[in-house]
Amino acid sequence: NCMTEQAGWMYHSEADIRKRFELFKEIGVNMLRVEIVWGSVEPQEGQWDNNNRAFRYMELAKEYGFRIKLILGTMMGPPGWFFDKYPEAGLIDQNGMTTRNTLSIWYPDLNNAIKQTNDKVISMLKEKGLWDNIDYIIPALGAAGEPIYPPLWTLPEGFTEQTFWGYDPNAQISFRAYARNKYKDVAEANKTWGTTFARWEDVVVLKPRIQPGAYWEDMLTWYRDCKRDYIRWQCAQVNEYIAGTDKKTLVYIP
To answer: If pLDDT is split at 50, 70 and 90, which confidence band does 164 have?
Structure first.
């Protein structure tokens, strides 16, 4: 029986946390879901917070006999300094809006950035004696841990509609490469799509409803497959961490 608390509740006083833990034990809870996001453990570049409240929360959970279901939240909680240093790592939606709550799956150094951070987080968990108390690991596949475009409820105030988030410069490069590989010649792509791109360098991800039909089907296929590739990589990475243990990987599907 697993209980998920609001992330901010980890920052309550230790006395309040202990009160809740006593109540959880009374109603038969034996597992807690905890998320560790990148921004909370590396608030400044190279400065790792070994006394992060998430770690203390997990230490208390262990004391009370709770097992842990861990969201390895690097993808869904990047620190502000990272976006300031690498603005190209961010997402852009069809309206030109940006969000800092998840990385772009088209950022060229994405896998390396995530692996380095995940390696460090797991190392810290082992150093604190918390690794063995974890039964499940949930790889973060996007905002809220889910492999979809950022859902509205995770976005800042001002976002009033659900949009597609495949419009950052690296996404445009990726779609262009996908189309070029499929059609070889831009004239063939134009014929199929009903478009008038003069050269491959002019091909872009268009907004919804601008070019329905074959073009939009290609866009959606590319969008889906890019996410699938990232999901497969991220799950494989987590599986490497838990190889030889009884831990399991859980995937969130909305």
So the answer is: very high
**pLDDT single digits (tens) 61-83:** 999 999 999 999 999 989 999 99
Q: What average pLDDT is seen over the chain?
A: 94
Between CA 10 and CA 12, with CA 131 as vertex, the angle to 5 degrees is 10
Are 194 and 213 a contacting pair, CB within 8 Å? yes
DSSP designation for 150 = P
Count Cβ neighbours within 10 Å for each residue of 97-121 and write b for 16 or more, e otherwise.
Answer: eebbbbbbbbbeebeebbeebbeeb
H helix and E strand count, the chain: 8, 7
The pair of three-digit structure tokens given for residue 15, joined into one six-digit string: 């006395």
**Rounded Cα distance, 100 and 136, in Å:** 27
Distances from the Cα of 38 to the Cαs of 47, 116, 173, 187, 195, in angstroms? 12, 11, 27, 45, 42
Handedness of CA 153, 157, 158, 164 (dihedral sign): negative
172 is written with which tokens?
Answer: 């445009």
- Three-state DSSP class for residue 154: helix
Q: Interior CA angle at 137 toward 150 and 18, to 5°?
A: 95
Residue 252 has pLDDT above 90, yes or no: no
Where are the strands (E) in 84-207, listed by range? 91-92, 98-99, 134-139
**Six-digit token pair at 220?**
């959606």
Q: In Å, what is the CA distance from 216 to each residue of 15, 25, 78, 166? A: 55, 52, 31, 13
| β-strand pairing of 91-92 with 98-99 | antiparallel
- Tell whether the torsion through CA atoms of 13, 18, 19 and 25 is positive or negative: positive
Which residue blocks in 99-140 are alpha helix, DSSP H? 110-127
